[in-house]
Write a structure and sequence with these properties.
With 486 residues, the protein is an alpha/beta fold. It folds into two domains: 118 residues, Beta Barrel (OB fold (Dihydrolipoamide Acetyltransferase, E2P)), CATH 2.40.50; 343 residues, TIM Barrel. Helices cover 29% and strands 19% of the residues. It contains 13 helices and 16 strands. The strands form three sheets. Strands 6, 7, 10, 11, 12, 13, 14, 15 and 16 form a nine-stranded parallel sheet that branches. It has a five-stranded mixed β-barrel with strand order 1-2-3-5-4. A two-stranded antiparallel sheet has the order 8-9. About 9% of the residues have low confidence. The structure holds zinc ion (2 copies). One zinc ion binds next to loops.
Length: 486
């Protein structure tokens, strides 16, 4: 069956999984020097130059030839079996396998395999929207990681923070900053130590996130998730915001943690540790009033604002409830613009794909998605994100924090593999760490800052370089903070 590129673009080709198809397109050989290739990309669009690699899985497909073929400069017609990829780590959607040219002779020369391609670094920018740096690991190093017997092994690599770099947690409720959901305890909830575990694990800076929908949300579905269960009273969530900002400042005072409010203080104090960037998870405290962003910036030193949380608020839709607004609202867009103008990092965690897309179109600064992980097909109400969702963040130059949910990862090594998958899709310079410390219903795989050296080792074992681990554990967020807050 002959198919055209609209079938690929629309995803209608999913129906053709396993069937033999004919398709024509431009061959993108990944090694321009090779005499013959058995793996390449077939693109709907003519390549603009030799070094240009198509990035969109809906306008190009992978091709695995039955026999190597000499690189072709003109449109190529192929017949092969179409495979719909469900969980491709590089984010491709379709692969044509056992492909044969319909009208050209075959050659049998030097082969350039997919494996070699992935290991070559040519995958740089393959799926990320912005040019970037592909994680420098190879399949050979993968195998080493898989056969490493245990964390106790003497061969466990230790991460040495490169000079001048420091670690940043993009999302934390450490120290029990949030009021208790139990109304009897409420704002009298005692704090727990925060600076000591940060020092012990080498965590320098945390985005300390208050939550301002706590009194109207509850644990639902047999402790599986949170949901909003009642409408707040007018003024209720604004008042909760005041209480929570006060708690955040009481906590940092008690723990002798320094609040950093601009790139100068962050770079001056960050490396010495414990520091906090005042953050809010959910802009519910605004109650739709955009000028309250200014108040939070000035009065409470807010520098990182997550637009939505577990309640569909005035700013937009959330992943865990059916959409109401069709994404980001006009008020949400105004809040993004106000954050850009003031110097507040915009965080779109918990927001729907539609929310993220409009936020990306609205924001003049890179976006953060502080805590999530990849899934090819997230279920209803899932907090995980698709590769396309992740790419929107990368396209703004932003960062996605991989979170340590035990529902997603069974241990730190699995989490490190999750970080690697994210880096495969969007480039290592767009990946960070969002621990969501003390924010989980079930204990996560990273539950104390004292585990940070173990996580860093797991990232090294997963194949990241020392410098890449530094970027993931802090450098990438630092870049976005500098661009957003200045
Ligand atoms: Zn969250
Ligand atoms: Zn959280």
């Amino acid at each position: 069956m002959q198919i055209d590129w609209s079938t690929i673009r629309t995803g209608d080709a999913d129906r053709l999984h396993g069937t033999t198809i004919d398709i024509s397109g431009w061959m993108i050989p990944l090694d321009a020097q090779a005499d013959a290739v058995d793996y390449f990309l077939l693109s709907a669009d003519e390549p603009c130059c030799g070094g240009c690699v198509p990035r969109n899985p809906l306008t190009s497909i992978e091709v695995q030839m039955a026999a190597p073929l000499a690189p072709q400069a003109e449109v190529l017609a192929l017949r092969g079996r179409l495979v719909c990829l469900l969980d491709d780590p590089a984010g491709w959607r379709y692969r044509l396998v056992d492909a044969m040219p319909l009208d050209r002779p075959q050659a049998s020369q030097r082969r350039f395999s997919r494996r070699a391609f992935l290991a070559s670094g040519v995958a740089l920018g393959l799926t990320a929207c912005a040019p970037g740096h592909f994680a420098g690991y190879t399949e050979a190093r993968d195998e080493t990681a898989q056969t490493t017997p245990s964390k106790q092994s003497e061969t466990v690599p230790r991460w040495q923070a490169p000079a001048g770099t420091f670690t940043i947690d993009m999302h934390s409720h450490g120290g029990r900053v949030i009021v208790s959901r139990n109304p009897v305890i409420g704002a009298n909830r005692p704090f727990i130590p925060l600076a000591t575990p940060m020092r012990a694990g080498g965590m320098n800076v945390i985005c300390l996130a208050i939550v301002t929908d706590t009194t109207v949300t509850r644990v639902a579905d047999n402790r599986k998730r949170f949901e909003a269960w009642r409408e707040p009273q007018p003024g209720e969530l604004y008042a909760l915001g005041q209480t929570e900002f006060l708690r955040a400042h009481q906590l940092v005072e008690r723990e002798q943690i320094r609040v950093v409010t601009n790139i100068a203080s962050l770079t001056a104090l960050g490396a010495q540790g414990p520091c906090a960037i005042i953050s809010a998870e959910g802009a519910d405290f605004l109650e739709g009033q955009v000028d309250r962003v200014d108040e939070a910036y000035t009065k409470h030193q807010l520098r990182h604002l997550q637009l939505t949380h577990y309640r569909v608020n005035e700013l937009g839709d959330i992943q865990t409830e059916p959409p109401v607004h069709g994404g980001l609202t006009d008020i949400g867009a105004q809040v993004v613009q106000r954050c850009n103008a003031l110097g507040i990092v915009v965080d779109v965690a918990h927001g729907t794909y539609d929310l993220v897309k409009r936020a990306a179109n609205t924001s003049t600064k890179p976006l953060v998605l502080s805590h999530s992980a990849l899934a090819t097909h997230p279920g209803a109400r899932s907090r995980l994100i698709t590769p396309d969702h992740a790419r929107v963040i990368a396209c703004t130059g932003g960062v996605i924090g991989v979170w340590p949910s035990s529902g997603t990862f069974h241990d730190l090594h699995a989490m490190a593999e999750g970080v690697k998958r994210m880096a495969d899709v969007i480039g290592v310079e767009h990946v960070g760490l969002g621990t969501d410390m003390l924010g989980f219903i079930s204990p996560p795989v990273f539950r104390s800052y004292e585990q940070l050296p173990d996580l860093a080792s797991a990232l090294l074992l997963a194949g990241f370089s020392q410098a890449e681990v530094g970027a993931i554990l802090g450098g990438n967020y630092l870049r976005v903070f500098q661009a957003s807050v200045g």
